[in-house]
Amino acid sequence: QKEVEQNSGPLSVPEGAIASLNCTYSDRGSQSFFWYRQYSGKSPELIMFIYSNGDKEDGRFTAQLNKASQYVSLLIRDSQPSDSATYLCAVKGNTDKLIFGTGTRLQVFP
Amino acid sequence: DADVTQTPRNRITKTGKRIMLECSQTKGHDRMYWYRQDPGLGLRLIYYSFDVKDINKGEISDGYSVSRQAQAKFSLSLESAIPNQTALYFCATSDSSFGRNQPQHFGDGTRLSIL
Predict the structure, then answer these.
(1) In whole angstroms, what separates CA A14 from the centre of its chain?
(2) pLDDT at residue number B99
(3) What's B104's DSSP letter?
(4) Which chain B residues have a beta carbon less than 8 Å from that of A7?
(5) Which H/E stretch holds residue B17?
(6) HSE on the CB side for B30, CA within 13 Å?
(7) Which one has a higher pLDDT value, B97 or A12?
(8) Residues of B with CB under 8 A from a CB of A
């Protein structure tokens, strides 16, 4: 079992729709959770981070964390073609190291 | 100017050559990291450093070495490059002064090809 799992996609959504990206993790001691966006050939860019159970909203993005079920998700409202990228989930446990998932490729079509 | 600068941005070299990738940052962060990214494998940690005197191996350190010359500089060396080290390499930084759970910030990457 991978430590951080994501569906590789591609996830295709029409412009204006809500994109839902999911991530599960295996270490119950994980403390902090991050979502990065990566355009092809570019570096990962931090989108959001969440530490506590529940929802955290920032503009069109909402991160959701459920520690009991060991999953974290990212919702993108009003998806735009410019949101088309690979989204990386990263989890930090007690070791102070980030463990990355392999990413979900999102395609937003006009 | 970028807060985390990696040089070179692209490098093509031959098997057996020694290569150094450099990372410098102006963010004032204490922690620095080196990752490699391969298609389908995601980002994997090579080495990390929590301060100038604290350097640690990551998940895939074999064949690599690092040097933390100053708080702002962290170099990655491939002593004798081999083709399966062809990858996209990223340097990242984080700031522990606000706690252990701070996010990491990435440089633009170095695309390394070993023939």
Answers:
(1) 19
(2) 78
(3) P
(4) none
(5) none
(6) 11
(7) A12
(8) 40-45, 48, 50, 58, 88, 90, 100-101, 103-109, 111
Q: Name the average pLDDT for chain A.
A: 94
- The per-residue b/e assignment along A18-29, b for 16 or more CB within 10 angstroms, e otherwise, is ebebbbbbeeee
Selected for mutation to probe chain A from B4, B90, B106 (highest A CB count within 10 Å) is B106
Burial of A85 (0-12, 13-18, 19+ CB in 10 A): buried
Confidence of residue A1 (pLDDT cuts 50, 70, 90): low
Query: Whole-angstrom Cα distance, residue A50 to residue A25?
Result: 14
Those residues of chain B that have pLDDT short of 70 are: 1-2
The sign one gets for the Cα dihedral B79, B84, B89, B93 is: negative
Residue whose structure tokens are 């606000």: B98
Is the separation of the CB atoms in B110 and B8 below 8 Å? Answer: yes
Residues A25-71 have pLDDT tens digits of 999 989 899 999 999 989 999 999 999 999 999 999 999 999 999 99
What pLDDT shows up at residue B1? 54
Distance from CA of A16 to the nearest CA of B (A): 29
Q: How far is B8 from chain A (nearest CA, A)?
A: 15
